[in-house]
Design goal:
By secondary structure, this protein is an alpha/beta fold. Helices cover 42% and strands 16% of the residues. Helix 2 runs antiparallel to helix 3, helix 4 packs across helix 5 and helix 8 packs parallel to helix 9.
Length: 368
């Protein structure tokens, strides 16, 4: 596609999540191509965006969160939808792309009767992500209105009806090459296992902590760092205290420098029960880190060839996770082999290739 487009992207906020990071990458990519890009957030608030945006990306926060607190629920819901409708109209888009359920449903409600194609993007496997009954019913009612429903894996798309699948598209996340200046800055000569993500039940850092603790005595030079924040922090801190390894298992908090974290690590682990398409796993592969991941739905099994560019272990099998940790912590040669093979992820999920798929979806939507 060569002709510039007017695109409006909508999401709830610009926090540290992988979906928000991909949305900002898309906005910047099209902005650099000369497209007119508007980005609407529903309730980011006054804090700055946690991902860099090109100056020409027109970002507007509708602040629907504060509006919600001022009015009775049925009225604020309608008022918020009307504000979103006005903002979309004012952006005069050729197409609208909504990210995540928290934006997909409001966008489809706000654009009823508007002659603009709506593309909605599911960013997690809906087989496993619980949502409110009300939102589930709205999704069933409204998604058939979408010009296209995109998911990151085939398994996620198969959640939906055959009619939606026919107009759907699987689009994985793009993977950027590691920055050329991402070199190890850690002074400590010890070895580091790293996990990165929201401190939420889904990510199962409790299993990673227990698995590491079970082999820690055999590998005295290794520590475990977990980067992220969330509602499980206190529970995980208590688990670390009970392990007696407070000096070797550290909850580092949030970071916006993923590649810096990876550069100072020797082994990456993803321990989730389920995913959408794990950006952080791909970023670890791109930096040449050896990786261990649960073979969870969805995503890891589509990027890792077990034993070739990483290790897959069954979900919820702490014994298998402990054995995989023990194996890779023991063998520098095995870590080097897996890490070298993992770098090919950058070619497989090249940014230009992935963005070309998005552009094809937009083109089909605007002419259908």
């Amino acid at each position: 596609m060569t002709s510039p487009r007017r695109i409006t992207l909508v999401t709830a906020h610009l926090g540290l999540g992988g979906a928000e990071r991909v949305l900002c990458l898309m906005a910047n990519y099209w902005c650099r191509k000369g497209w007119s890009v508007s980005l609407l957030t529903l309730g980011h608030g006054v804090r700055p965006a946690l991902h860099k945006l090109e100056p020409n990306v027109k970002w507007t926060d509708l602040d629907l969160g504060s509006h919600r607190r001022r009015t009775f629920w049925p009225l604020n819901e309608a008022a918020g939808i009307l504000r979103l409708r006005r903002a979309i109209k004012e952006s005069s888009p050729d197409a609208v792309i909504a990210f995540l359920n928290s934006a997909n449903i409001p966008v489809l409600m706000a654009t009823v009767g508007m002659p603009v194609p709506i593309i909605v993007s599911e960013r997690i496997d809906p087989h496993h992500e619980p949502i409110r009954l009300r939102d589930s019913l709205l999704r069933r009612l409204l998604y058939p209105r979408a010009a296209c429903v995109t998911t990151q894996t085939r398994n996620a798309l198969e959640f939906f009806s055959f009619a939606i699948q026919k107009r759907g598209r699987v689009i994985p996340n793009p993977v950027l090459p590691a920055p050329p200046n991402s070199a190890r800055s850690r002074q400590d000569p010890g070895r580091v296992v790293v996990g990165v993500g929201r401190l939420a039940i889904q990510k199962r850092f409790d299993r990673l902590i227990r698995a590491f603790a079970s082999v820690a005595s055999k590998h005295a030079e290794w520590i475990l760092e977990i980067w992220g924040d969330g509602d499980q922090r206190e529970r995980l801190e208590d688990l670390v205290r009970k392990s007696g390894l407070q000096d070797r298992i550290v909850l580092r908090g949030r970071t916006d420098d993923i590649y810096g974290v990876m550069a100072n690590a020797d082994l990456f682990v993803l321990s989730s029960d389920y995913e959408g398409f794990p950006n952080v796993l791909c970023e670890a592969l791109a930096t040449g880190l050896p990786v261990i991941s649960t073979d969870c739905p969805s995503g890891p099994g589509e990027v890792i060839r077990n034993g070739e560019n990483g290790i897959l272990v069954p979900v919820a099998d702490e014994s298998a996770l402990s054995q995989a940790l023990d194996r890779l912590m023991e063998s520098a040669d095995e870590r080097a082999r897996l890490g070298a093979n993992g770098r090919a992820i950058v070619d497989a999920f090249n940014v230009d290739r992935v963005m070309s798929t998005w552009e094809n979806v937009i083109e089909v939507a605007t002419i259908s």
